[in-house]
Write a structure and sequence with these properties.
Helix content: under 10%
Distance between the termini: 149 Å
Number of domains: 4
CATH class of the largest domain: Mainly Beta
CATH topology of the largest domain: RNA Polymerase Alpha Subunit, Chain A, domain 2
CATH architecture of the largest domain: Beta Complex
Shape: elongated
Largest sheet: 7 strands, mixed
Amino acid sequence: MMDKWINNNTISKILALAVAVLLWGMVHLDTGTPSSTLTVSYNNKVIDNVAIQASGLDDSKYVLSTMDTDHVKMEVRGQRSVLTSFFADNYQAKLNLNGLGAGTKTLSLEPDLPDGVELVSMTPNRVTVTIEEKQTKSFNVSIVPKGNPDAGLQLGKPVIAPQTVKVTLPKSQLSTVTAVQGAVNTDGISEKFEQKRVKLKAYNKKGQELTGAVIEPSTVSVEIPVTQQAKSVPVKIVYSGELPDGLALSKVNANVKEAAVYASQDVLGSLSSYVTATLDLSQFTEAGTRAVQANLAAPSGSDKIEPGSIQIQVTVVPSNEVTDTERTLSGIPIVLQGAGDGATATVTAPAGKTMDVTVKGPQDMVNNLTNDDISLVADVSGLAAGQHEVTLKVGLPKYITQAGNASQLKATVNIESPSTPAVTNPNSENESNPSGSGEKGQERPQEGQGSQSGDSDAKTGDNAAAEDKTNPHNGADSSANGTSENSQP
């Protein structure tokens, strides 16, 4: 009988329904009646320095220039296990700037909290912001080399591409931009410097970087040539050999007036005032005009000299056809020579320690003379302590002579020995310059001093002359523009 019920379809369905209803009731009974042993703990937590995150501003047109605070303090509540599982970085205060333009506004903040955490309070809950409109302006780019190249080399002018860039900043900051620069390392380089991408930065007048600047393009390419250090110095012509009897120099002109000497900074700093080219007079055997080449002498320690040679146009004429012209050069300094050991010699008259000298010679040479081409020497060799009137020795370039009476060039000299008091000339301040020059000058050493005429006073006897600048048979030199000079540079 039992088997018959079990095999009956209807009876099986009724049993299945009954079991289902029983299970449903058991489940709902458990959910509605919580266990008396389960407890949940809720705690409060204070979080300082929660960052404010601004968003929504049109960065292409505007910039958030100021915000009265960039953080808030939050108090939150949640289960202890939830609160301890999050760090301060998981909490944020949202600031919505969507659709806002330039100006100052006070806006509400929205908390952004982790799941399972609720806000108790937020201080402050509003913030005042200032939004500025961006502006763009073009600036020239400059490059700042850092470090020095190898010894004897110098950096040329940087070649920058592009030379100008656009800088975008808030209006208040754009007006403070004074330079857009890139820095390159040139320490120890020995050849042309090249860098394709040099990053640019904008700076204000205090040299501070404006970090918010948008620079377009942000990089430039840079090339910096490297050359040897050079100094331009005048070219002077010195002579060797002699012209045949009956011939005289009329004009000497060089096609180059200055030359560039390449050397280290130390060598360039010690260079003399000119470089020389030697002209051999013995190659001219007849009257006429010729162009000849002469090499320039590179100074000791220099790397090279440019140009290495010059062209000199020389005019030679019969001696009887040379037409002399006169010229007075003012303010030639008087140089003292020959003071004994321990003695001190001082020019007391003329008061300015300079004199005027009138010279004559070929017109072209005379016109190109300078004060450096003439020397005035007061030789006090053998003179005792006291005041003396000394005839000056005049040193002149070759083919230039003194016009007038050479003995008229005299100076008053006071000599003091270590044990002799100073002797002053009460009339020295009012004494006129015998040659008409009262300009002040400094006593200075003179190269190639010589004597054309005159002796010192009777106490000195005949003094040995210094190197003769005036002897037409001695080697002489001239400046590149044709002026004759002493052969010793």
